[in-house]
Amino acid sequence: MTDFYFAYGSNMSGARLCERIERPERICVARLAGWRLVYNKPGRDGSGKANLVPDAGAHVHGVVWSIAQHDWPILDRFEPGYARTRLAVEAEDDRVHETLAYLHPTRGPELVPHAWYVQYLIDGAREHGLPDAYLRALKSVPTR
Predict the structure, then answer these.
(1) How many domains does the chain divide into?
(2) How close are the terminal C-alpha atoms of the chain, in Å?
(3) Are 105 and 83 in contact (CB under 8 A)?
(4) Digits of tens for pLDDT over the chain (144 positions)?
(5) CATH code at 19?
(6) Bridging pattern class, strands 96-103 and 83-91
(7) How many CA atoms lie within 13 A of 100 on its CB side?
(8) CB 35 within 8 Å of CB 6
């Protein structure tokens, strides 16, 4: 059995995700309306990690992966503090996919992510052909 996973952070990168779990299958790129990408999840070193917060006027792009249900506990270990949350995302062909995504409950201030971390998001955005404007926004994130 498999589930759809909406990756909007470092797991958009196929190389990064394949280091963590076996055989994720890319389904499509997708857009999540009503949410904004922020870096307010504190990493172990105090740096910012990607998270989503509600924002009626915003949207987030990401990748829908099909992953085996037995891979969730493995992936959970790489995502401490996040909770798996059901989200409906819209694919380029207007189909809606019910997915699981990792969200962190913090509503704390934005933190500064490491450059190497944001590079995973940039690599994933390039790899999957996310919109140029979204890629430019990722490249403009201030980093450590």
Answers:
(1) 1
(2) 40
(3) yes
(4) 999 999 999 999 999 999 999 999 999 999 999 999 999 999 999 999 999 999 999 999 999 999 999 999 999 999 999 999 999 999 999 999 999 999 999 888 999 999 999 999 999 999 999 999 999 999 999 999
(5) 3.10.490.10
(6) antiparallel
(7) 14
(8) no
